[in-house]
Design brief:
Helix content is about 45%, strand content about 25%. It has helices at about 55-60, 85-90, 95-120, 125-135, 145-150, 155-170, 185-190, and strands at about 5, 10-15, 20-25, 30-35, 40-45, 70, 75-80, 140, 170-175, 180.
Amino acid sequence: MSSMPIPKGSVLFRPEDECRGFVVVRKGTIKVLLTAENGREIVLYRVRPGEICLQTFGCLVQGSRYSAEGVAETDLEIEIIPAEQFQATIEGDRAFRDALFSAVAMRFSDLERLVEDVALSSVAERLARALLRLASATDEVSVTHEALATEIGSARAVVSRQIGDFQRGGMIEAMRGKITLLDRTKLERLAHL
């Protein structure tokens, strides 16, 4: 099985698509998003090398279709294990099965944290955590307000107001499409990290 290169921005699956097989990420990141009927989006999770996509796993195990969208957040190298081979490997390879179920359990923990985060945390807390998580080594985040809203499950206008508050508080410097973290300590306290 050889790796397939996938360019950044490519849509790997959409709601109601059939699952072609089990995706193994060798390089890069897949972002999995859920869109509500009102058009608002939220990032459910990201799939990096060594991690699994719950959407794909669920589709293969249940014989269902995708309910979310998977997008190449970066350039990718992936392998796709055909459904029949995936099923045979689960049945015949105990180490693969154990690793798979462990990864599924970890991914469910991630989703539990997401639900807790959205339901119980303020926008300021969620935005601070997102900025810290997305920041580069030079404390820069190349992102739009719309993308941040999707990241934390909020509206763009709410995120824009909160970014203004962070800037006035000296925690960040915001420019079009880019945010620079100025005070990580304050952001970490706000994020409860």
